[in-house]
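Chain X:
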Amino acid sequence: MSRNSIKILPGALVCEESKLRGDITIGSGTIVHPSATIIAEAGPIIIGDCCLIEEQVKIIHRLPFDQQNKENTTPVLIIGSNNVFEVDCTVESPKIGNNNVFESKCFVGNKVTVSNGCTIGAGCRVDG
């Protein structure tokens, strides 16, 4: 399935140079910088309001290896509001709450759920 369905709500700013692939909804007030990559591989991605997605950020929605053969489910990656994704971080988390900061060059794996008000430190790797 290589269908792109990009929805950008009023007030959001998405730079033309960003790379968006799959079924993605971007909330009002969210800013997506140039060279940011958002890939909805396993199912839709819904990004909340007032998020900041900086340069070279990679947000990838993919299933954990042990769930790839399960049928009848299309998981949705919901990213809450007021999240900051700093330069060159990679986030594959299946669920992200509100008011989180993903600092530069951090990595969050696809088995990690991030709740509310968390900070993942610069260069830290969280695989779960």
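Chain Y:
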Amino acid sequence: MVAKMASAKQSKEKDPADIVNQNAIHIETIKKENRSQKVYTLFSINPYKRLHILTDKPMAGNKTHDQVQEDPAFLRAIHRACLEPTKKYTHPQTESQEIGWISRPLIVSDRSDRRLNWSRQNSEITKYMDAAWRLKEQTQNQC
């Protein structure tokens, strides 16, 4: 029984730190991370997200922004992102866009066509009530 306790006590105690062994474990960990890691070297701004640009201070003496060449592909992507969906895509991308995708009227609107345009018509009683309401509003506003 005493022998078992002594061996259990020895297994609980750790061996002193071996630098070579720790370095090997560290190298293996880094290799595993590098295998699953993608390194991105080409960065650009997402053209589908709203961009908030902060301007320089007006009295700042640094004029480096005048010397920078503009990338035409980047400018096209930014301008395309600001367009409404009907100008960006040929077909609706979501079911919500299907409603109102074709916003052109089906027929040409002709205001002189009496079949489709029912303009407001006044009879004697409506003319009288309009005048009465106007008179009532004027008297209330004067008080």
